Amino acid sequence: MDTVPNIAPIPASGSPASAEDATTRPSAPLQYRVVAKCGVTKARVGVMSVRHADVDTPVFMPVGTQGTLKGVLPEQLLALDCRIMLGNTYHLGMRPGTTVLEKAGGLHRFMGWPRALLTDSGGFQMVSLLQLAEITEQGVRFQSPYDGSECMLTPERSMEIQNAIGADIMMQLDDVVKTTTTGPRVEEAMHRTIRWLDRSIGAHARDTEQSIFPIVQGGLQPDLRRACAAELTKRNTRGFAVGGLSGGESKDEFWRTVHLCTDLLPEDKPRYLMGVGFAADLVVCVALGIDMFDCVFPTRTARFGCALTRAGQINLKQRTFAQDMRPIEDDCDCSTCRTYTRAYLHHIVTVEPVACSIVSVHNVAFQLRLMGDMRDAIQEGRFPAFVKSYMAVRFPDDTVPQWIRDALAAVNVQL
């Protein structure tokens, strides 16, 4: 018999982060408006207003899998003006479970985070992280890594957990296959994702407070992506995600799929590209019309002593930094760069636990600042020049990868 954590009755309505927020937040759970467009590329600036924050897009969303961003406190994220972060439905549903989350008043209060939250559906973890997982029409059957019990995650169960978590944006449970998969399994997963969306919508108990984003699937096959987007956009949802990428496909296949999907999705709703976080990829995909991104990369690479800069990633463990008294980046005003030198960080990375926090703060600040710089460039009508300048710094001596040249050329930027 399947075992899952008990679910207490879901409240009819949740509470905003504060009394002040209650007077300023929009009446609809998600409102999105485009405030500026690039006249050359598909890049745009928007404002996505949800119950807990106004989120400026394009936006990078740090990933706090267990309700915490590894190495970074909520107050540090607030100091960086982070407006939205992620939680993981699968992990939070297993531990601490919905009973604890509801008793706490939802994940916002449980983790002390007053701004916006997005939760994934939990399906990706089951396919990517668990060996004993079986996908059927009912859902994903898996073995719990916590106690070994057999569990079933269905679209309905995913909605129950996400309703209890109380995230502003929720992802539908989708049928995830590796991007390198070929044959009939890709089409099967695409059609099942559409059916599971309808079940998710039917099970959603808090539509006046939380918004579901469908996920466009279809692998690397343009006809399947078109068919999936055509069906998903018939549903009255408040935003859309592009899934099933960054899983081993070539960069050429990656950008062409993103380019196609943004052409297929509505202009008046946010577009979320799941699991993408390398800086150059962010710049390219903003040019291709994406509004939202997430990735564990900035904090994960920090745990290995690596820091992000405009010129690329640097490994602070290398001896070349042992006497380098500069900050990670000269023009960065984050608390790490204001306080610590590369030499000091070389001394502690991967040795002292606090180093993870110090470098993670910078890496998250780097991602957020990059998105802010792109928003400014779009609004000021200089985004193509920004892209060219960024790529010249990131890839000096004319070493820009061909896939980036091709992707940008597709939106009228010639490097």
TrEMBL record:
RNA binding: region residues: 275-281, 299-303
Key words of the record: Cytoplasm, Glycosyltransferase, Metal-binding, Transferase, tRNA processing, Zinc
Domain (tRNA-guanine(15) transglycosylase-like): residue spans on this chain: 41-393
Lineage, uppermost ranks: Eukaryota, Metazoa, Ecdysozoa, Arthropoda, Hexapoda
Active-site positions on this chain: D120, D294
MF terms (GO), sorted A to Z: metal ion binding; tRNA-guanosine(34) queuine transglycosylase activity
Subunit-level organization: Heterodimer of a catalytic subunit and an accessory subunit.
Catalytic activity: guanosine(34) in tRNA + queuine = queuosine(34) in tRNA + guanine
Low complexity bias (residue ranges): 1-19
Cofactor annotation: Zn(2+)
Region span, Disordered: 1-26
The EC number(s) this enzyme carries: 2.4.2.64
Primary location class: cytoplasm
Annotated function: Catalytic subunit of the queuine tRNA-ribosyltransferase (TGT) that catalyzes the base-exchange of a guanine (G) residue with queuine (Q) at position 34 (anticodon wobble position) in tRNAs with GU(N) anticodons (tRNA-Asp, -Asn, -His and -Tyr), resulting in the hypermodified nucleoside queuosine (7-(((4,5-cis-dihydroxy-2-cyclopenten-1-yl)amino)methyl)-7-deazaguanosine). Catalysis occurs through a double-displacement mechanism. The nucleophile active site attacks the C1' of nucleotide 34 to detach the guanine base from the RNA, forming a covalent enzyme-RNA intermediate.
Similarity comment text for this entry: Belongs to the queuine tRNA-ribosyltransferase family.
Protein name: Queuine tRNA-ribosyltransferase catalytic subunit 1
GO biological process assignments: tRNA modification
Name of one Pfam family that matches: TGT
